[in-house]
Specification:
- The longest helix has 14 residues.
- The chain is built from two helices and five strands; from the N terminus they run H-E-E-E-E-E-H.
- The model has no long low-confidence stretch (mean pLDDT about 85).
- Strands 4-3-2-1-5 form a five-stranded antiparallel sheet, with helices on one face.
- It has a single domain, classed as SH3 type barrels (Roll).
- By secondary structure, the protein is of the alpha+beta class.
- A hairpin with a 4-residue loop joins strand 1 and strand 2.
């Protein structure tokens, strides 16, 4: 399962902190949506939910130095970037090999 394309519904059953933890583990880029309406696309490289002012750090698409964004300024985190590991699971590999084997099997 991949988080690619996920638009979390933050509310009573899913907190921003939980979404941030998923985003930290995600291998693709995310879009951080701020309360002022601005968005930052990049890789969530760090977070500290237990800091006096909890924050995330995002390296933007251009690879600039990380931008620090307080949790209090974030509305949502969208999983907009491609997950580079998607389709690379053992099951996907095995299915692909079986298809290739069937394509190259001699006709009866």
């Amino acid at each position: 399962m991949t988080l690619q394309g996920w638009v979390p519904d933050i509310g009573p059953y899913l907190t921003l902190a939980e979404v941030i933890e998923h985003a930290f583990d995600y291998r693709g880029n995310v879009t951080v949506v701020r309360k002022d309406g601005s968005e930052l696309v990049g890789y969530l490289s760090n977070r500290d939910g237990s800091a006096p002012e909890p924050f995330v750090q995002v390296i933007d698409e251009e690879g600039n130095d990380p931008v620090r964004i307080p949790y209090a300024d974030i509305v949502n985190v969208l999983f907009t970037g491609k997950d580079p590991a998607e389709g690379n699971s053992w099951k996907a590999w095995l299915e692909r090999k079986e298809r290739e084997k069937a394509q190259h099997a001699p006709s009866a």
